[in-house]
Write a structure and sequence with these properties.
2 domains, globular, six-stranded mixed sheet, Diaminopimelate Epimerase, Chain A, domain 1, six-stranded parallel sheet, alpha/beta, inorganic pyrophosphatase (n-terminal core), 12 strands
C-alpha cells in the first residue's frame, strides 16, 4: 500500500530508527492513566525492539488496565513502582502520546545526562520536550504514526504489531468516529485487517467487557449530572469514595455517556482518584476547543478531547472556573 508521507517526517522516522539501533538499551513510556493508544503504541515498539534483540523496557507509572490484557504481548507493560531498574543500562527514552514530559509521572526519574529523549506525539499542546520531537498534530493516533515508522524503515508488521497498532488506532479514533479519522487512517486499518485483524474482536474486548463496578460507578455519575447554559454544558463527578468502594474500576469511556444528551455541546467528568485531587476530562461535540480550556489549568489535549487537573483548587472552585471558561468560549462563537 502506497501512503503519502512528507519528506521531513520520513527523515525523522528514519532518524528515530537509527537512534534505536545505535542505543545500548531503550525505555518506552507514556502518560499516566493509560488508554488504548498509549498501550498499543508502546507494545508495538516493544515488539520491534524484541525482534532486533534490543534491550528494552516498557515502563509506566500506572498498571495495565485489565481490558487490554487480551493483547498477546500485554505482559510486557511494567509498572515503575514494581520494577527494579538500573537507568544507566538504557540510553534512549521514547515517550509516546504525551504532551509534556511531566505526564509520564515518576518514570521521569530514569532520565540521566547520557540519555536521549524522543517525543512521539500528536497533541496540539505538545511542549517539544525531546532531543528528537516527532509531533504530527493531524495524526489520528500514535498507532498511525508508528505504521508510517515501520513502513518508512522497511520493518515487517507481525501479527502482534498489527494487533497493537489496531488497538491504538481504534482507541484514539473512537472506532473511526472522531475528526482525526482520515482517509489514511482507514487505509491503514484496511491493511491491518488484511493481515488478520478481526474488528469485532477488538470492539468486544474494548467496549463490551465492563466490570460490575464500572456499571455501578457509571450509574452514580449519571445521577450526579448537572446541566448549565440551557442544558448545553454537562458536568458530573466520580468521588474518592467511589474509587475506594470499587478500587479496580476503569473509568475510560464513561464520559461518553454524559455527552449522549441531545442538547449538550460540551461535557466534563471530574474524577477524584486521590483525596482532594481532581482531574477533569473535557469533551466537545462541535466547535468549542476544549484543549484551549484545559490549557488554562495546565492541561491539554485535542480540540474535542482534553484534560486538566485542579492543582490547589477545591472542587467547587475548580468546577466554577471550568464552567466560566466554557461559557466564555461559547460566547465567542
Amino acid at each position: 500500500m502506497n501512503l503519502k508521507i512528507n519528506d521531513d517526517l520520513a527523515s525523522q522516522l528514519r532518524l528515530l530508527n537509527e537512534w534505536i539501533i545505535a542505543s545500548r538499551g531503550v525505555i518506552v513510556s507514556s502518560h499516566v492513566n493509560p488508554d488504548g493508544d498509549n498501550i498499543g503504541s508502546q507494545l508495538a515498539l516493544g515488539e520491534y525492539l524484541s525482534s532486533i534483540g534490543k534491550k528494552y523496557l516498557i515502563l509506566d507509572e500506572d498498571p495495565l488496565p485489565r481490558h487490554y490484557a487480551f493483547l498477546p504481548n500485554s505482559n510486557q507493560v511494567n509498572r515503575y513502582s514494581d520494577t527494579a531498574i538500573v537507568p544507566k543500562e538504557y540510553d534512549l527514552l521514547i515517550v509516546v502520546d504525551s504532551g509534556d514530559l511531566e505526564r509520564i509521572g515518576t518514570v521521569v526519574k530514569v532520565i540521566h545526562p547520557e540519555m536521549k529523549v524522543v517525543n512521539l506525539d500528536h497533541h496540539l499542546s505538545n511542549t517539544r520536550f525531546g532531543q528528537l520531537n516527532i509531533v504530527v498534530e493531524g495524526a489520528s493516533s500514535i498507532g498511525e504514526m508508528l505504521y508510517y515508522f515501520f513502513s518508512v524503515n522497511g520493518i515487517g508488521i507481525t501479527a502482534n504489531i498489527a494487533s497493537d497498532l489496531y488497538l491504538s488506532i481504534v482507541s484514539d479514533t473512537g472506532f473511526f468516529r472522531y475528526d482525526s479519522t482520515g482517509t489514511g487512517t482507514h487505509l491503514i486499518a484496511a491493511d491491518l485487517i488484511e493481515r488478520g485483524i478481526m474488528p469485532n474482536y477488538f470492539h468486544t474486548h474494548v467496549n463490551m467487557m465492563k466490570t460490575l463496578g464500572f456499571i455501578k460507578v457509571l450509574g452514580r455519575s449519571l445521577t450526579r449530572l448537572e446541566l448549565y447554559e440551557e442544558n448545553s454544558i454537562a458536568f458530573s463527578s466520580i468521588f474518592y469514595g467511589d474509587f475506594q468502594e470499587f478500587p479496580d474500576v476503569d473509568t475510560e469511556g464513561m464520559i461518553e455517556h454524559i455527552g449522549t444528551l441531545d442538547t449538550v455541546s460540551v461535557f466534563c467528568l471530574i474524577k477524584e482518584k486521590r483525596e482532594k485531587e481532581y482531574r477533569a476530562s473535557l469533551r466537545s461535540k462541535y466547535d468549542i476547543d476544549v484543549a484551549k480550556i484545559a490549557g488554562e489549568f495546565g492541561g491539554g489535549g485535542h480540540k474535542r478531547a482534553a484534560g486538566c487537573q485542579s492543582g490547589s483548587l477545591p472542587l467547587e472552585e475548580f468546577k466554577t472556573k471550568l464552567i466560566d471558561s466554557i461559557k466564555r468560549e461559547m460566547r465567542l462563537l
